[in-house]
Design goal:
- With 391 residues, this protein is α/β, with parallel strands linked by helices.
- It folds into two domains: 77 residues, DNA polymerase, domain 1; 278 residues, Aldolase class I (TIM Barrel, Alpha-Beta Barrel), CATH 3.20.20.
- It contains eleven helices and 14 strands.
- The strands form three sheets. A ten-stranded mixed β-sheet has the order 1-4-5-6-7-10-11-12-13-14, with helices on one face. It has a two-stranded parallel sheet with strand order 2-3.
- α5 packs across α6 and α10 packs parallel to α11.
- The longest helix is centred in the middle third of the chain and has 15 residues.
- Bound molecules: iron/sulfur cluster.
- The site of iron/sulfur cluster has 12 residues, from loops.
Length: 391
């Protein structure tokens, strides 16, 4: 069911004014701002809590601030919410929002309710540079990175819609996955800032254990995920380079031996954590018993879990989903080797909200407006000096 937006939030109009947006600013940035306004430092904390823990959008209602300060904030600043262009609800309860940001760029966000948890899938970019063959987002031109503010606005809008600005124990969104549109490790700085605010006890207050960042395998940045303390997932999808080069073209830059070395050296494995390997099941492409055995050999020695994802078709997709019997046989081989290998139940297929189905109509912008994403250079690669052993 698609509903056109009737709820473009009032604060969206503020985006078109000269006012400066505060949503997405860190504690330190807010502190600098209130000191500049000749206010005591604790005002920064009040604004931080108001925006990120209480979901406030109007300075007028921040009643713990003096009236004069509320007025000044209102004249100079705003608290952003993207416009909701459309929202869809699947027959299984999954919800998808198409959001539009100040410059017109659009991204999708998906909420998946389950009995014991509610998971929000966030986008980190508009479009994606990586063109994974099975992924609908990969067929969309890359537009730009999302800012920390825009990543957090996806949570805020979902919380608004679900009436979920409550104490952490009662809330509907319990888990966050960065598995929507884009490669989060090609937008690391903004993703890291958003995660810091998401996990701040006086901010969104999500447990780091319940946040998962998924990468297609940007090897040099994998150790950085460890510094954020969130869970790491690798979009693997193939057990050898020849096939992965086709399915996940980034593999040509960072082949499997480099990727597996980065996983084996991943610092947080020492803290009894596991890496999740995602494996989309494609009929007669990557689903044979031999490939299951090859996968087991590939990840041997890595504390891991393998999520088997039935392929979610989209118009013009070059693949079909594996049969149930083939997926079960594949799972059995991985499980026999000692790895958890749950076969995921697709959610939100009828509204194109399932894994790999997200795509918006955002067009490539003029070059001058694009935020160019350069893959990290050789120099940016972590070395043994950084405490990471490669090779
Ligand atoms: S699977 Fe992820 S990294 Fe690959 S094209 Fe899709 S959004 Fe990009």
């Amino acid at each position: 069911m698609v509903s056109p937006a009737t709820d473009i939030t009032p604060s969206y109009s503020s985006l078109l004014t000269e006012k400066k947006g505060l949503f997405g600013l860190s504690r330190e940035e807010l502190l600098e701002l209130v000191v500049g306004l000749k206010q005591p430092p604790y005002r920064a904390r009040q604004i931080f809590q108001y925006m990120y823990a209480r979901g406030g959008t109007s300075f007028q209602q921040l009643s713990s601030l003096p009236l004069a300060l509320r007025k000044e904030l209102d004249q100079k600043f705003y608290i952003a919410r993207a416009a909701v262009v459309s929202k869809e609800v699947s027959s299984d309860g999954t919800r998808k929002w198409l959001l539009q940001f100040a410059d017109g760029a659009k991204a999708e966000t998906v909420y998946i309710p389950e009995e014991s948890r509610g998971t929000l899938c966030l986008s980190s970019q508009v479009g994606c540079t990586l063109n994974c063959r099975f992924c609908h987002t990969g067929t969309q031109l890359f537009v730009r990175n999302l800012s920390a503010s825009e990543i957090l606005q996806q949570i805020a809008i979902t919380k608004d819609a679900l009436d979920d600005w409550q104490t952490p124990e009662k809330r509907k969104i319990s888990n966050i996955v960065l598995m929507g549109m884009g490669e989060p490790l090609y937008n690391f700085e903004q993703v890291a800032q958003a995660l810091t605010i998401m996990t701040d006890a006086e901010g969104f207050c999500f447990s780091r254990r319940k946040i998962t960042l998924s990468t297609a395998g940007v090897v040099p940045n994998i150790p950085l995920v460890g510094t954020l303390g969130v869970q790491l997932a690798i979009s693997l999808h193939a057990s050898n380079d020849a096939l992965r080069d086709k399915l996940v073209p980034l593999n040509r830059k960072y082949p499997l031996d480099e990727l597996m070395q980065a996983c084996r050296a991943y610092p947080r494995l020492k803290n009894a954590e596991r890496i999740t390997f995602e494996y989309v099941m494609l009929e007669d492409i990557n689903d044979s018993p031999q490939q299951a055995q090859e996968l087991v050999r590939l990840i041997r020695g890595i504390p891991a879990k393998v999520n088997l994802i039935p392929f979610n078709p989209w118009p013009g997709a070059p693949y079909r989903c594996s049969s149930s019997s083939r997926m079960r046989a594949f799972a059995a081989i991985v499980q026999k080797a000692g790895y958890a290998a749950p076969l995921r139940v697709p959610r939100g297929r009828d509204i194109m909200a399932a894994c790999g189905q997200l795509k918006t109509a955002s067009l490539r912008m003029r070059k001058s407006l694009q935020c160019k994403v350069e893959p990290p250079t050789e120099k940016e690669r972590p070395t043994e000096k950084d405490g990471v052993a490669f090779g």
